[in-house]
Amino acid sequence: MSEVKSVAIAGASGNLGPHVVKAFLDADFQVTVLTRSTKSGTGTGKGTYNSRVKVVPVDFTSVESLAAALKGIDALVSTVAGAAIESQTVLIDAAVAAGVKRFIPSEYGSCTTSPKVAALPLYASMFKIKQYLEEQATAGKLTWTVLACGAFLEFVLGGPMLLDFANHKATLFDKGDNRTTVTSLPTIGKAIVGILKNFNATKNRVVRISEAIVTQNQLLRIAEGLRPNIKWEISEVQTSAVLKEGLDELGAGDFSMPVFMKILKGTALAGDTYGAAFDETDNDLLGVKELTEEDLKKLIAGKLE
Fold it and tell me: What are the recorded GO MF terms, alphabetically (predicted)?
């Protein structure tokens, strides 16, 4: 029996959040969603959720407000967006004050745990949060788990990150053989439930899941096999050059999304350089089933229609 019966979710309206909410409801957890209160001046506090979900408006800048909402909650799962990563210290302080047993921070990435990216933009904030959690855990105030899941499968196949299915173009990073772990959003939600169901086995550590390890050339080969009549436009680029370009532009004061995407691509798509492919996983522990080649073919076939 899990030590966790009630869970609160911060960031439930984002890309991953709804899948996490559904997974917990499917597993019969008591689910509370924290939303921005109108008093904080940062939102409406409104949202459409299942009738079984308790929605509590809070001030995300106030430990007192959050702690009050977290009373009686066993675990807090954060799926907040990138801009709010560093401010999770407030969530952590509130969790400690409320006696929450487990905190799962918003990370869910490919190479977010690699020491090689610790000082880079996008990643530095995540390392600060993990260090803060480790300090709280050492003091016996709460436990934590970081979930590394690789790239979101929906984003990889839904946009031009690896292959541009819509325009039949492929920009191969380092010639296209870099390995990348991918996992779908529903599976990530179920894995988070698995973390709390395996409370002791996932305590104070990073757990890794992987539905598949793919390369651009592999996906391209599948696409060409399915639709040999399509001619793909191929170009090549070095991830190290993409990363340098992004860092240089950021250093020059350009904080636009395309610049941050260059930093992301230059690291998360660099394969084994930053550990983006998980050869050792906690799939069995968390109930994650790996995709077969046939599964990938079906997914890619849907993108070629």
Answer: oxidoreductase activity
pLDDT classification of 43: cutoffs 50, 70, 90: very low
- In a shared domain, residues 76 and 105: yes
Give φ, ψ of 233 to 5 degrees: -95, 115
Number of domains in the chain: 2
Tell whether 265 is covered by a domain. yes
Neighbours of 177 (CB within 10 A): 12
User: Does residue 288 share a domain with residue 229?
Assistant: yes
Concatenated DSSP letters of 208-234: E--SEEE-HHHHHHHHHHH-TTPPPEE
Question: Based on the domain organization, do 53 and 169 belong to the same domain?
Answer: no
Residues 258 and 191 in one domain: no
Model-level pTM? 0.94
Q: What is the mean pLDDT of the chain?
A: 94
* Domain match, 33 and 127 both: yes
Q: Report the 10 Å Cβ neighbour count for 59.
A: 18
Q: Is residue 1 part of a domain?
A: no
pLDDT at 83: 84
State how far the Cα of 91 lies from the Cα of 105, in Å rounded to an integer.
Answer: 9
Residue 191 and residue 240 in one domain: no
Residue 198, pLDDT > 90, answer yes
Q: pLDDT band for 67, please (50, 70, 90 cuts).
A: very high
What does each C-alpha distance from 231 to 152, 220, 222 come to in angstroms?
27, 11, 13
Q: 268 CB contacts (<8 Å, ≥6 apart)?
A: 109, 110, 111, 151, 180, 274, 276
The DSSP bridge partners found for residue 294 are none
User: Domain range for residue 46?
Assistant: 6-148+185-208
> Could you report the per-residue pLDDT of 71-105, keeping only the tens digit for each?
999 999 999 988 899 999 999 999 999 999 999 99
Query: In Å, what is the CA distance from 65 to each residue of 34, 90, 91?
Result: 11, 10, 10
